[in-house]
């Protein structure tokens, strides 16, 4: 295999999560440092983790993805060493970057485990990269962050496959009346409006909201029939006085039940894997809401290690090494004001 230029390593950057009860609070302190999150919300979220023995599934999901990517790179002749660093828990990004420097790595292509444009999913990753590089100093490796990949077929097709499977799992007599709820992490309205650059005509929820609407449509286009669908939000934090993106998934399930809708399929299209926000907020909380209302409920899997999603990683590497054209399904204008190319 010939070594590729201009990159000499691949890096997965993720959120990180605790892997034991004693790690929960320090992890939450890392996440919320300098953010405007009420103490009660923090205690509540801590309980979500304790319910699972203090173990977030996200780190294991990163290991699984990296194992699949390692195999795929070998099959595709991509000869790059693979590294992993998190923003909020071990292995920490700063430590990984320092290890890369010691290994002689100069130019890094990094993939974030978030697909969309907004401060929290994009800019914050860039800021953390800058901070980690600054701590190392002059010989810090250079890092390019792969573009938002929400509109790559390798992100959309797994969601479509998983939505079909969830529809199939509904009771047959309710399936025809099912509503699809595409669920993403809520963010403060002000943060959403800044995404994509202010005044760029993306609508109230900024580029993030426009991209979420587009991916929902792309997924529905790939189903055997046109189910009614909408975008909802989950996992809101922040003080109640601060407006965040709405409607909340639970509120919508209650309203739809009152309207007589017999079933919902929740598609977590705002996420890359079934981490804690999916396992608790959807599989426990939203499911309970549905059960209380007597509305049938299924949740589609997130992309995870779907072969098309793993193949997307190879595709993105080739896009950045100039060995492949960008693959994009979206017709939404590219966002402005973040670093995305195009
Ligand atoms: C857009 C978005 C994504 C998706 C894209 C991406 O992945 O980037 C995401 C992912 C995740 N969020 C996660 C966990 C948390 N997020 C929090 C807080 C916040 N998230 C926000 C946004 C997002 N978050 C925001 C605006 C806040 C408020 C604080 C702030 O303004 O920055 C808090 C603090 C407590 C709380 O308030 O809930 C926790 C614990 C985990 C790990 C799950 C696990 O452990 O398995 C993951 C993958
Ligand atoms: Fe979050």
From TrEMBL:
<keyword id="KW-0350">Heme biosynthesis</keyword>
<protein>
    <recommendedName>
        <fullName>Coproporphyrin III ferrochelatase</fullName>
        <ecNumber>4.99.1.9</ecNumber>
    </recommendedName>
</protein>
<dbReference type="Pfam" id="PF00762">
    <property type="entry name" value="Ferrochelatase"/>
</dbReference>
<keyword id="KW-0456">Lyase</keyword>
<comment type="similarity">
    <text>Belongs to the ferrochelatase family.</text>
</comment>
<dbReference type="GO" id="GO:0006783">
    <property type="term" value="P:heme biosynthetic process"/>
</dbReference>
<dbReference type="GO" id="GO:0046872">
    <property type="term" value="F:metal ion binding"/>
</dbReference>
<feature type="binding site">
    <location>
        <position position="125"/>
    </location>
    <ligand>
        <name>Fe-coproporphyrin III</name>
    </ligand>
</feature>
<dbReference type="GO" id="GO:0004325">
    <property type="term" value="F:ferrochelatase activity"/>
</dbReference>
<dbReference type="GO" id="GO:0005737">
    <property type="term" value="C:cytoplasm"/>
</dbReference>
<keyword id="KW-0479">Metal-binding</keyword>
<feature type="binding site">
    <location>
        <position position="185"/>
    </location>
    <ligand>
        <name>Fe(2+)</name>
    </ligand>
</feature>
<keyword id="KW-0627">Porphyrin biosynthesis</keyword>
<dbReference type="InterPro" id="IPR001015">
    <property type="entry name" value="Ferrochelatase"/>
</dbReference>
<comment type="pathway">
    <text>Porphyrin-containing compound metabolism; protoheme biosynthesis.</text>
</comment>
<dbReference type="InterPro" id="IPR033659">
    <property type="entry name" value="Ferrochelatase_N"/>
</dbReference>
<keyword id="KW-0408">Iron</keyword>
<comment type="function">
    <text>Involved in coproporphyrin-dependent heme b biosynthesis. Catalyzes the insertion of ferrous iron into coproporphyrin III to form Fe-coproporphyrin III.</text>
</comment>
<feature type="binding site">
    <location>
        <position position="277"/>
    </location>
    <ligand>
        <name>Fe(2+)</name>
    </ligand>
</feature>
<feature type="binding site">
    <location>
        <position position="56"/>
    </location>
    <ligand>
        <name>Fe-coproporphyrin III</name>
    </ligand>
</feature>
<dbReference type="InterPro" id="IPR033644">
    <property type="entry name" value="Ferrochelatase_C"/>
</dbReference>
<keyword id="KW-0963">Cytoplasm</keyword>
